[in-house]
Amino acid sequence: MKARTAGGSTSLQNKDEIQKTLREGGYTREMVYLSMLSAFAVAIHSAEASFPTPPWLKPGLANIITLTTIACFGLRCAIYVTLLRVVVGSLVIGTFLNPAFFLSLAGGAASVLGMGLMHRWFSKTFSLIGISLAGAYLHSLAQMAFVSLVFIRHTDILYLFPIVLASALPTGVVTGIASIHASEKLSAFLEEKKLV
Fold this sequence. Notes:
Elements: H1 12-24, H2 27-48, H3 63-73, H4 75-93, H5 99-122, H6 128-152, H7 161-192
Helix pairs in contact: 2-3, 2-4, 3-4, 3-5, 3-6, 3-7, 4-5, 5-6, 6-7
């Protein structure tokens, strides 16, 4: 069965069937698919670390994997993928427990929770592009809030807000479009493997 909303995300009924089949197939099968998604997310996260931009101006392309996981498997699995991406990614690039790690954790937590809840409650209203935009803004705002509360503690950082919010617009759109295609490909793969 192949059920999909207009925005490219898997329907709630279809997602429930995927999760049920994964559970019936055992813990190992679920971990295999989530580990594969986590590996892709870590690879993107590590590649982004080479971009010569401040941490709060990174494109956030690893959210493609987060949003794809939300669309196909749900919020619980997306939280798992996000945590693995932040922790393993920081170990790979050597930022574990330094300021960049906590910035990534704050942004990742805000975006995965925001996108997951938005997809659960408003998937019939917003496409994955709209949900991705919300996630991009939440990611940027969480990081800026963390910087201002923990590191800088100065109101001058507010001058960066327009730049950060403006940069979130194109990256949110690109991430949303990519997530639509990725979730379609993943759903087709799962269907081929008799998981839907």
